[in-house]
Write a structure and sequence with these properties.
The structure holds two protein chains of two kinds. Chain A is mainly α. Chain A folds into two domains: 1-37; 50-275, MetI-like fold. Helices cover 76% and strands 1% of the residues of chain A. Chain A is built from 13 helices and two strands. Chain A has a two-stranded antiparallel sheet with strand order 1-2. Chain A starts with a helix and ends in an 8-residue tail after the last helix. The model of chain A has no long low-confidence stretch (mean pLDDT 90). By secondary structure, chain B is an alpha/beta fold. Chain B has two domains: 2-133 and 284-337, Periplasmic binding protein-like II (D-Maltodextrin-Binding Protein, domain 2), CATH 3.40.190.10; 135-281 and 352-405, Periplasmic binding protein-like II (D-Maltodextrin-Binding Protein, domain 2). In chain B, helix 8 (187-200) packs across helix 9 and helix 15 runs antiparallel to helix 16 (387-405). The N and C termini of chain B lie far apart (78 Å). Classes of the chains: A mainly alpha, B alpha/beta. Chain A binds chain B through residues 48, 114-115, 130, 133, 135-139, 220, 224-226, 236, 239-243, and chain B through 57, 59, 173-174, 182-183, 227-229, 231-232, 242, 244, 364-368, 370-371, 375, 378-379, 382.
Amino acid sequence: MLPYALIAPTVLFLGVLFVIPLVQTVALAFQVKGGWSLDNFATMADDLNFHDAVVNTFRLVAVAVPLQLVFAIGMAMMLRRIGKGRDLILWIWSIPLGISDLAAGLVWLAIVNDQGYLNSVLFRLGVIARPESWLTYETPAALFFAVAIAEIWRATAIVLLIIVAGVQVLPKEYGEAAEVFGASPWKSFTRITLPLLKPSIQTALILRTVLAFEAFAVVMAIGGRNFPVIISEAFTWQHFNNDSGVAASYAIVIMAISIVATLVYLVALRTPAAQR
Amino acid sequence: MLRKTLFALSLFASIGAQAADPVVFLSTQLRPLEAAQTVRTVILKDFKPGAEFVPEQPAELVTRLKAEAQAGKHTISLIAGVHGELQPLVPEGILTPLDDVAAALKDRGFAPDLMSLGKFGTDKQLFIPWMQATYIMVANKKALPYLPKGADINALTYAQLAEWGDALQKATGKRVLGFPAGPTGLMHRFFEGFLLPSYTGGVVTTFKSPEAETAWTEFAALWKFVNPNSTNINFMQEALMTGDVWVGFDHVARMIDALQKQPDDFVAFPAPAGPKGRGWMPVLVGLGIPKGAPDVAGAKALIDHLTRADIQITTAKVAGFFPVTSAPLPTDLDAGNKAAVAAIQKTGAAIDGIAALLPVGLGAKSGEFDKAFLDTFQLIVLRGQPVKAVLEKQGATVQRLMTETAAPCWKPDAASTGACQVK
């Protein structure tokens, strides 16, 4: 009886704050004027920003998540070699984690907008003759680049922390054995460290990918309406167009994508039972 | 003795005032954080027993009041919204008639036109005017030498504005016209109240007329001289003060900072005219009391407070909305406000003026209505799609919204008996 009593608050918490809103969202998305209907999804798919939003979202995830993983693993490996000051470096690297999404977006906006630091620096160096606009509908490549960099800067820390935690519990024996047999550092990294880190990488990828599909505040701050993503469209439909049905449809799309992405990682990066 | 009694009375009164709940005052206007704070700390400062100012999104006003009426649990005593936002409350029977308030405040000198708008065509006074504004243009004085030859800045046409933008681009190498097309900007009002009425004399009925095609084609041509950052601009005052924009269009309340902080650098003037006249959108904010309001007496006292001459002038000074009563503007009004008032008066007095009301009767669909204009803009102007095809498709959306809401035409479209029709 006791175990059930102990998990009851969690179940209740998730039930009230997750399952009920989920059911309500599904009802909103699939109902029009009280009847079951796919009209909301039709409206969504027919909207002029839908295609852009989907493409932008996937592009952002495809660019940001792999880079974040590479950076995080690289940083974690560097930390391994550092003795003194390791904690300080880790602490500094985790700063973006403590900053809210929106604040991070605004920091990068202050850097890349017309009067931003980037323009000032380039102007002082004589690279540009006058402030350039990087964030307009006429400069989609620069805009994407700015959003991607901000998103990578903001969220690499969470991947890093998960990887660092994984690295800390790696058994030393395998590495030492590899060294004894004369394996190069690269070989021991790809053949020993990476495979052993797989569970951590899986966790980090699931978490990061799901959150990257939901990127919102950073994108809104830097891209505004020039860079629609799925979540920002959900926000626009709810907040500006006052159509909760279409907004809920976008939410369902995001949920479906997140579930599929999670399943893909679970299958692709699974650790066979024998190795656990 | 008398002094002691008075002291005791005032003490008693102040205790009473502290005990009384503040009047809950819901407003769709003055929502931005700073503006709302100004309302609380300046405009409502001296009001006893105090008021709680609650800003609310326009589309949620109706939802919230309907929900309160259905639940029978009323929290809001006074509401403020523009004419078109309050209108959907009328068929719902949510607004209390305020003829007694109107009679009591007769000597405030409300403009009769504004007062009659508060009746919504009924014989009851359903809101009391609070404040008014419109959209104007503001230009950096550096831009004035490049005005087209023979152009009168106070009677500009869209063709001249385009010429001006062209000349400015040639002179500065930059595109310095500006429109508030950012995510929370009011760009849709430019189409609904200014561009389309100026070219077509209507908004809904003429949505896909040949005149509308001309309007969009010419506006797309003019856009070549518009700062591409316009799609990030929410408040024109910031872009004006940084110098990104030299000639900008926006709601006066969203440009007043530039005029007040740098009165020597900027001039204010009416929006341009098109072939049919000078389309403009008067914005009248009214005060209404919902049926079942918990504190009707407090709400009436607050209406009295907000329409007092000194508060009307304070509102003009701090919030960028102007008096609806005969309250004389003080001679010590700052230069920025003076410029704004002059531009608003010139707009209202223009002989070719076509007043276009805010959309009326769309209720919760007004967001989608605005979207139709913003989508049209995005497709034609930003993405360069064929004008006729876009207007055809978006016209169907507008027609659907009209049919669903059964909203009759509003000015400048000619009155209709049933739902307004896109011709």
